[in-house]
Amino acid sequence: MDDLTLLFQRAADVAARHRSGLPVTPVRPEADAATLRLAVDTVLREAPTPASEVLEELVTAFAPGLVATPGPRFFGFVIGGAMPAASAADMVAVGWDQCAFNGALSPAAAVAEEVAGGWLKTLLGLPPGASVGFVTGAQGANTVCLATARQHVLAEAGWDVGRDGLRGAPMVRVVAGAERHATIDRALRLLGFGTAVVEEVAADANGALDVADLAEVLDRGEQGPTIVCLQAGNVNTGACDDLRRACALARQHGAWVHVDGAFGLWAAASPTRAHLVDGIDLADSWSCDGHKWLNVPYDCGFAICAHPQVHAAALSYTAAYLTGQGGPTPAMGDLVPESSRRARGFAVWAALRELGRDGVADLVDRCCGLAQRFAEGLEVGGATVVNDVVLNQVLVSFGSDARTDQVIDGVQRDGTCWLGGTTWRGRRLMRVSVSNWSTTEADVDRSVAAILRVAAASQS
Ligand SMILES: *Cc1c(COP(=O)(O)O)cnc(C)c1O
């Protein structure tokens, strides 16, 4: 075999061994960053190093600092674990090394994004004519979608923001829920709106938008260009806004509706959970992640827009002749902020092919069922679940803030599973997110037992 084949085979072998070990290895890393820093060779060498040696050095140096985030007992943040076919597809994509700028540079990357984007729209119940930009994640998607919203509402007011910027532009109202994700605020900063522009809508008991308050907020201000940001999947509680009623209200005010559905949008793909995002198709733009609940490798997200021409007007190169060569318009490069870009379509295509429609629905249902099991197990053990577990997120208290933080810390050191803390409504809580395709009932039971063991020990 030639050197390249051996090298790639070795890389695949390292990756496969690591993944296969995840169900049994501790979730916490062997070495923290400080330890790793001391161990890693920091000297920039003068001479080249053969590729095979580089690979071995890399693995030896960095493997101790890996966290088992793709494993079945990582429940921190909202983290998926890449599925087998999607991981293999991404490896092949690295081998193919395509630039997903336009159809001329890679017909393969272009058509993979078209097909995978079409499947996504079907699964999520979004308009078939919507445009799909393949971005880095929901942060990227929120930024793209809000840039598109800004373009549209200002164009309606007779202002070309692409040419003239925001100075002297009509005031744009941005209405968003009190429990919106922090990436909405960052997008508003990047887009020159600033965060002070946000007119906040109160949240209901489980962290979804209070629709009556939305009506009041919309009525209160001066009518004009308006963007309403809704959410499917509160990052703490999993709650989804009442999209149907909220969209209807926003429409009455001529607003653009954006839905941040980084993980919650996937409820649409499950017949038993789709009611949570009823009315989803009524919005103008949607953010969704591939690397969270769809379990596609990092990084991968989708900026989806019901108005492809506006999407392209906001994002495309001004030198329009560069894009759209040989493909449909708008071309994929017209829908994202990047110029050169890796080909994310292959892994998404593979994930959806591997799962099929039933598999996606089952993935969503299974994670929701396991979240419920988590909640029940912890409550039986004396902990308090503070949210209504509607999706895959569980918030848990062990009493005081200090005690809850102590339990979280103990669980992280124990290594059976990994959970993080959050502050929700002024209270420190343990946050459980079940988003991984490989998590089983046994994983949940083992994790619940470990958490309760740590909690019992911390009481004495
Ligand atoms: C995770 C998340 C984001 C940010 O997604 P990234 O993929 O990390 O960029 C945005 N909104 C919500 C609701 C999220 O859960």
Strand order of the largest sheet: 1-7-6-5-4-2-3
Q: What is the CA-based Rg, rounded?
A: 23 Å
In N-to-C order, the SSE pattern is HHHHHEHHEHEHEHEEEHHEEHEEH
Number of helices: 14
CATH superfamily of the domain at 89-349: Type I PLP-dependent aspartate aminotransferase-like (Major domain)
Portion in strands: 5-15%
Helix content: 40-55%
Small-molecule binders here are: pyridoxal-5'-phosphate
Low-pLDDT parts are 319-326
The largest β sheet comes out as: 7 strands, mixed
CATH class of the domain at 89-349: Alpha Beta
Which shape, going by the Cα principal axes?
globular
Look at the helices and sheets and give the structural class: alpha/beta
Distance between the termini: 61 Å
| CATH architecture assignment name of the domain at 89-349 | 3-Layer(aba) Sandwich
Under CATH, the topology of the domain at 89-349 can be stated as: Aspartate Aminotransferase, domain 2
For the secondary structure, the number of strands is 11
Mean pLDDT: 96
InterPro entries: Aromatic_deC (IPR010977), PyrdxlP-dep_de-COase (IPR002129), PyrdxlP-dep_Trfase (IPR015424), PyrdxlP-dep_Trfase_major (IPR015421), PyrdxlP-dep_Trfase_small (IPR015422)
Cofactor: pyridoxal 5'-phosphate
GO molecular function, one term: pyridoxal phosphate binding
Protein name: Glutamate/tyrosine decarboxylase-like PLP-dependent enzyme
